[in-house]
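Recall the central idea of this unit: under ordinary conditions, the amino acid sequence of a chain determines the structure it adopts. In this exercise we apply that idea directly, starting from the sequence alone.
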Amino acid sequence: MHSMTAVATAHTTSPPAIGGWGILAVIALIAVMSRKNNPQAERRPGKLRALWRAVVGLVGVVWSVVRFYGGRELRGEPRSDATFLRPGRPVQAPGPVAPAVSLESIAAAPPKVSLVKPRRRAPRPWARSTAAWIETYSGRGAQALDWAVRAVLWCVRAAGRVWRVLRAVWRVLRAIYGFLAPIVATIARVTRLWHCWPYAARGLARLAMTAALLGLLVPAWRTWTIVLLVLALGAVVAAAHRFQPKPPGDDAVYGPRLWAILRDDLGLPEDEQRENWLRLPERLAAPDARILLRLPWTFRGSEIERGQVGDLINSRLPGEWVGRYSFTGEHFTAVYTHKPPPKPPAPTPEPPAAVDIWDPKVQEILAALGPDEFYLGQDENDQPVIQKMADEQAHWALSVGSGGGKSATLQWLAIQMLMKRGTVVPIDPKMVSLTPLIGIQGVHSYINPEAPQDMRRVILWVAEVVKARNYEKKKKIRTAFEPVYVFLEECNELADLLKEEYTASKQSGDPAGDPIWRDGVAKVLRLGREVNVHIIAVFQDFKDTQFGGVSLVPLFPFKILGSYSERQWKRIIGTNIPMPPVQKKAGRMVLVLDTGDVTRIQVPYAPWDPEKTKDENQRAAYERLTAYYKELRATHGYSTEGLYSAPPEPSPEVAPALVRALSRDTGAEGRIGGLEGGRSEETAGHGVTLPEGVTGPVTAPRDRLRLIPGQAAPEGSEGPLEAPRLLSIAEIAREMQARGYDIEAGLIRQHKRRRESTGFPAGIEIDGAEKFTLAQLITFYEQRGIEKRENGGEETKQDDAV
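Accordingly, the structure predicted from this sequence is:
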């Protein structure tokens, strides 16, 4: 009882309450006080005076007992407004207010130390070298050093074990503390609020304490009293654990401090109650949390005032809040709610995953196209994208990475070109993309990288066609022309081939850069759109230095990109047009105009059978496309009107040197042996054992050898009465190789440039190019010591001067 009353009277100025053992002292005190404060009792007779004192003392004792077990304060005024059955709230006693915790004490508080074991790092190099030296040291004092190291290691291990034990004990104590601390705090909080208990609860507690005291004093009752006390303690602990007080809500934590600032900002008196002006939710993190603020009549509601109040709430309360103000009705109010999260961006529409060429809808779109219109594919909304190949967009540039569907795109464009009765001129130094077009009427393919002069001649031929058509249009001889489409596939590779060929045949006084891009390609790009001549170029890099210094970028205002990278986009398109997301998918293209319009499409292509291999699918697609090309040409027709002359005939393809040198006696890939017409081992009699004195007959060859195209004499060779043909150096080199001379066009050009020292014969100049007869150069080289290969022997080279 003494401890309870001491706690109850802590931090107060009233005297301590009287305990159960002080009842007799209270009775004596009452008797003395009644005697001292009752003067009439002094005047009464002795017996009556004694009786009065006894009655007064008895009444005082009874009143003290009733007051004690009735739960009232035995001395002083009540410190709460509690009643017999209702708990109360503390009555604020006048006195100094306890000072708040200073910021200095918070700043000077020791930091929390983490007991988490840090991750072990690898030993330092010096530690490893030191350990290795200790282990390998065998000089003087090695035994003592070994003992010292062992002792140190044992101490370290022992310290580690002690540390782990202490850490485990600390974890156990921390767990126990984590369990008991809330219970002890709850009991202490309830005991500290003794003066707020209802009188019935306090009286019952005092009665229980008196009964426990009597039970402990009487030996017969002591055992049962201890048992009951243990059970009561367990019940108290369980009740304290069950009825732990909830932590204060956000309204109790943030409300008073926020109100202290708002009251000044709103110009309210200091005696205004917070409950009348500001109401915070118990949990600010609740989704439906609302902050209610009543505004004074003087609040004007300007943007500055609203911003000040909103900034204060957002700076002092967690989360982001937006206010809704109301200035109608009896009171002005502001309701702050959580700022709604930003709406997720709408998913970007994507073009369809695949578009089948043979789909009836695709065929309907193709049938409805105009003369200049090309159907490129389906866009993000699954709508057809149709682009005119005319006016500013008469020439197109493509930049498609590996696996992006470049070949399928070019083949898809070729389908529509054939439907427009166009002449198609594919120039492909890699011989891959436009293979299905080979052999189609009106398609003139130049796909041999060993004959770059053919590609040069056809580009110049297209430039001449453009020149002739512009002349006829200017003279109003003809104003409409059939289209001509030129594919410049792999322009960077093509530029390298043409540059090598130009450098090998360049004469003194010729320009350093290859003029084919200025006199051929650039001229077609600038003048071809007026006469229905178009270039579709495939680039990997737009470098003007690679194309003879001619700036080709402005001449292609319409570009198609696929499977590109960020670096390629910045180099080809620039940074003024935002780059769409990159998708490495076959047929997924991006159409870009110089105006900034960007469209993502899916190009139609023939679907593949998943049960077949890639080669089988590609072979089947090529065969079907070739048949479709022939059908389109037969359906829509073809006209050579407006071409003025046939395109240059491609040079006959010559087999590579390794293929020409293979023996045909044992197969196409046999060992290097006799040439065509020579005798085999069996024919010559080698390896055959005959009886002595018998000469074996020379038998016929085992089998006739099949010729490689171009290895025998060329078809249509001139007869004895025909005029000799004038050929270029490249054509003469191929003819000489076909006749058995191992000579290259580059060597002939070197001899031509060194004509004064080598005696190279003079030719005949036709259209600015010097040409020769085949017999003329054969005679020159035979005189120089280069002979034909005969009977399997290699040619002899005796031209030391060369």
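The chain has a mean pLDDT of 77.
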